[in-house]
Specification:
With 148 residues, the protein is mainly α. The chain has one domain (2-136). The protein has 4 helices and no strands. The protein has helices spanning 2-15, 22-43, 59-94, 109-136.
Length: 148
């Protein structure tokens, strides 16, 4: 992405010739990168955690709250995946293309759906891990926050 932006900016500045469709290319690549890293972030427990009110809670309570949060996240992921599927069907039917080059906008959605399915599996794994931790009385390990 950085290379495309650099070439486009230099081309626009020096030769008045930017990379055609550079905004669309960057948008597509950013979307794919975000979907790609969601499952990894979930497995590393790198999602946002606001534990201000639960700092003094027992490990069992923290594990139960994490399990409940993962359950809500799983439901949201399933809903987003379901809507992505119907968005794919609609975009495929409309045959919308990027204006600068012949690239159908729906071509990246199957990859996004795959990533969401992997995310759902990662959340399910985290959920089961938190339920087991709640039963055993310990919370899952989280990465240390910066500044600690």
């Amino acid at each position: 992405m950085a290379t495309v932006v650099t070439i486009s900016v230099i081309g626009r500045y020096l030769f008045s010739w930017p990379v055609p469709g550079d905004y669309d290319i960057i948008g597509i690549l950013c979307g794919c990168a975000i979907f790609s890293f969601l499952p990894y972030c979930q497995l590393k427990r790198g999602n946002v955690l606001a534990d201000f009110f639960t700092q003094k809670a027992s490990p069992r309570t923290k594990a139960m709250l994490d399990a409940m949060g993962n359950l809500f996240f799983l439901m949201a992921t399933i809903m987003f995946t379901w809507r992505l599927y119907y968005g794919l069907l609609e975009m495929k039917q409309s045959s919308e293309q990027i204006a600068a080059f012949a690239f159908y906008r729906w071509w990246t959605i199957p990859f996004d759906i795959f990533c969401m399915i992997v995310l759902a599996l990662a959340i399910l794994y985290s959920f089961l891990e938190d339920v087991a931790g709640a039963k055993a009385g310990h919370a899952a390990e989280r990465p240390a926050a910066s500044g600690e």
